[in-house]
Amino acid sequence: MQASSKNSTTAAAPGVNLVNPRDVGGDVLLLDVRGPDEFEAAHIDGAVLHPLPGLNAQAVARLAEGKTASVLICRTGYRGRQAAERLAANGLTSLTVLDGGIQAWKEAGLPLVRGQQTISLERQVRIGAGALVAIGVALGYFVHPGWLILPAFAGLGLVFAGVTNFCGMGLLLARMPWNKRRKPDTPQTA
């Protein structure tokens, strides 16, 4: 990675640099902060998975030993910036965010390791909540008005999830058989 090149690295926020996907190279730590389902669907070869919610600065520091920099990867760059800011606050340096995230990497035509394609947990929650609303309204209209409690429950659940950042439906869906992952042959998480 050409960290000193003005074209390849630009400032995103104080202490956070961005790197163009085509300029990533050299002896860098590729740290993917997306969720396991996103990582399994497509990731950069050699990237290490360390999801943002459980980001551990000490573990990242161990992974980055001997590397020239750490490139933080997410879907679009937003979570990468959050991770960089969190790690910088814990004293880590040489942090760079992949500008545009994995989407920009893909658009640049760069290679990805592809795995099992699944619907993201976030989309599954939206599908589930929407289904509860539609079913509740239909049952409330055609069967009994008492069924309108179902869409009200779904709406209140979404508001609660937005306010508290705790999604019970997401936790429930994560335990469903279609969201269970086989253990990789080699460790991919930090």
Show the helix and strand layout:
Layout: E1 9-13, E2 16-19, E3 28-32, H1 36-41, E4 42-43, E5 48-49, H2 57-64, E6 69-73, H3 78-89, E7 95-98, H4 101-107, E8 113-114, H5 121-142, H6 149-164, H7 168-174
Parallel strand pairs: 2-7, 3-5, 3-6, 6-7
Antiparallel strand pairs: 1-2, 4-8
Helix pairs in contact: 5-6, 5-7
Question: What would you note in describing this structure?
Answer:
With 190 residues, the chain is an alpha/beta fold. It is 41% helix and 15% strand. It contains seven helices and eight strands. The chain has helices spanning 36-41, 57-64, 78-89, 101-107, 121-142, 149-164, 168-174, and strands at residues 9-13, 16-19, 28-32, 42-43, 48-49, 69-73, 95-98, 113-114. Strand 1 and strand 2 form a beta hairpin.
Can you give me a brief rundown of this structure?
The chain has 190 residues and is α/β, with parallel strands linked by helices.
